[in-house]
Batch of 4 targets.
Target 1
Amino acid sequence: MSAEPREAPGGKVPERPGARLRRHFLTGILVLTPAVTAAWILYKLLAWVDGLLWDKIRLGWIRPGGIPGVGLVTVVILILLVGILVNNYVGRRFYRLWDSLLARIPLFNKIYLAIKQIAESLLSRETSVFRAVGLIEYPRKGIWSLVFLTETPNQEILDATRNDLRSVFLPTTPNPTSGFLLMVPEKEIHRLSMSVEEGLKSVISGGAYVPGRGMALETEGFRRSRRGGWWRRARVGPPAGDTAGAGTDAAGGDRAGKAGGSAPPDSGG
């Protein structure tokens, strides 16, 4: 017969070596994955920008293929020069002429105008794309969907519907760049106090991120591993009706089973 695990002085079951290793490994994954992924995406983006220009501009006569980083610096300087030029009177007139010419090219103008509108919405300092986060009953009554409030529809739409509408964006999970544009009566929108950033995190994570609590894996999951066994649900109190089995904690404080209550969950490491 195998001996049962001995309880520590505080009433806890000692963590098994396997559970401890799993906890450390998952902690490492949670810490390294965002940093490594962000660094890899940034590296690929910078390498792509660096390779936009010809080898000769990137000092290809000194090193075959050009010197790494020269193309990136050149592109940044070129973007700054364009911005400086467009922000003065002569540059603005030239930009209007250039913009009107591009908008008249068949097929090309559809792509150009769409990208231009998206870029102006995302990069504009005066306005924000999403105003707030809310809930609506969609796709039917009793089912709630997280939406982002944008702008009020134009007067033609308001006159046609004879209703006080608000445009909302219903994103898809886990890719919030696609979704549905809905026009919902203001009275049917339940505004939330969470920020737009928190709402986007919740959508991208598929509900695993909870504003105010973070990722579920960081709380409930790690608590399970510390109680011995990753998939074993933590016991936070004595069984219903058992008030005699709960003792005092290591500090000799509160009784966990008093009045049929449950023991406070362990928040320590």
Note: Residues 17-50 form the longest helix (34 residues).
Target 2
Amino acid sequence: MLSAQDWWGIMGAYGTRVWPAQAIFYLVAVVLVLFLFVKPGRASSTLIKLYLVFSFGWNGIVFFIILGRGLAGDYGNYVFGSLFTVVAILFAVDLLRGRMEFLLPEAIRQRWLTIILTVVVFCYPLFSLAFGHHFPRMIIPGTLPCPTTALALVLLTTALPKVDKIIYFILLFWAIPFPPFIQIARYGVYEDGIMLGVGIYGLLMLVTNWSTRNIVNQRMKPTS
């Protein structure tokens, strides 16, 4: 089993080698999400999906398969790399299909909760600094899988019910069990509590959406 020191050593080496990609991915994400919140529509949704294609593709190939080898063993890295690459491909497919559209919820409480969670995800680097994880070990959305998963999940909740369920379940699988049992427990990545919280929120939103749809469908059934 990889020690915490070795794990953070790999993370630091990765952060050094890919700089300034972290800053570019992060700033592009901030601009695109602001554009989505200020002017929601097909154009902003398309740009968000395009960003997620590149981001998940980067995490799957560059992080897991090329530079981050050793974090989960050879087989683990290829499995996780494949998962993130599949997510990138599915976002690319939806670019052509145009099924998912990201829109802030109409309900005021849910709208503000979505905004707050998005801001918290973008504060990943600040939490990293607070926990003593300075550059190049800083955890930043865009070029690292956990904060990127958190950001994508928040955005996907705004696309419910027309969301790609395969993407959603892969990201929930990554967001909920990994932080308490691996990231936090073994390696002290306390900032990944953000991803865990977003994962729980995403799961609740999915279940709530299903429950609401079932109630509506039952009411619409003709009575004899």
Note: The chain has a mean pLDDT of 92.
Target 3
Amino acid sequence: MVESGKRSRPQRDYDGDTNNQKRHKDDKGTNNDGLIVYRILCPDGVIGSVIGKSGKVINSIRHESRARVKVVDPFPGAKDRIITIYCHIKEKEDVDVDDDFNHTNPLCAAQDALLKVHAAISNAVASLGDSDKRLRDKEECQILVPASQSANIIGKAGATIKRLRSKTRTSIKIIAKDSTDPTHSCAMDFDNFLLVSKWNFNVLSIYLLRLFMWNLSVKT
């Protein structure tokens, strides 16, 4: 999935994985490979914990998943930081939203990294003190999704998103970018916000969502 769009300034990112530069160079893929890209949002107040001291946490996720993981610099007014996760794949496994998943094995490196990043964010938020109780209790995951994918997630007359809500037993919403809202400055012009929230949030819900998005984000 190749993305382009206007931003208020160039996108730079944190990539402190100096021990894995060779692997990063080898992960460029070929013209015949598909590119899986996920952009998950992390509250700015816990980004330090997600990166870890000297990049320890984020580097561990890179090493374990074998995916590219980058933390984008903050945008003016935004309350969240973008963490971009991607990898190249040669073949895709067809997955349908109505399938029953009896396994928890990731289908690609980027999906594995997405779960690990989400877990790191959740752990960091859970450790917040009483002064950040509102953020701690919110238990919400946000992913940036191009509008073209959002339409597929919603489905005809909302049929697909209803099945996803029923399947995951989770609140799932898609919100369009508001160009007048400075907190939305991290999103590109064509982006929507995919919000997944529920008390006692279950990581399996994100797993099922990303399985569905697997079908949407692979070049064919």
Note: Confidence is low (pLDDT under 50) at residues 1-12, 18-26.
Target 4
Amino acid sequence: MRKIITQYAALPFVLKNGRPRVMLVTSRGKGRWIIPKGWPEKELAPHDCAAKEAYEEAGVVGKIDERPLGTYRYNKRLRSRGVTTFEVKAYLLEVERQLKDWPEKGQRETRWMAPARAARLVSEDGLVQLLLSIDASHGRRKRRSAWTPVALRRLAGPLRALSRLARAWTGAKRRNA
């Protein structure tokens, strides 16, 4: 059995005209669309690692949820070890502002978009499910009600549960195929 490596990610979001928008960044290697993520650091709590990655990779700062929105896995081919599985715990980050300058500014592109559009651009199935769960939960609300940061944070628990169900369903679908 392969060892699974943990990473922490931030899912940056803002509300624009009462609707959630998420930020994606490009990877440095191949320029794929991803969310900011990185390695655990001994002196930082997982959600603080995620916030630090969002600052370094996208220049965004704000309020990060202390509980993960969800978890997803992806495989990556490493030169030294062949294919490795990564498990990413993703935390919602309510963005207050994007700085004019940040450590990886010249190395990555950032872009705000609707969660459904972001889901079409990323390649990790579990991340697709997290993004779609944000979009789906928004679509069930009354048109006139506005999303507030408090409302989005309240949705974090149900979204985590929805994400777990989606992962279980996807895994069962693959096993039966």
Note: Residues 149-176 form the longest helix (28 residues).
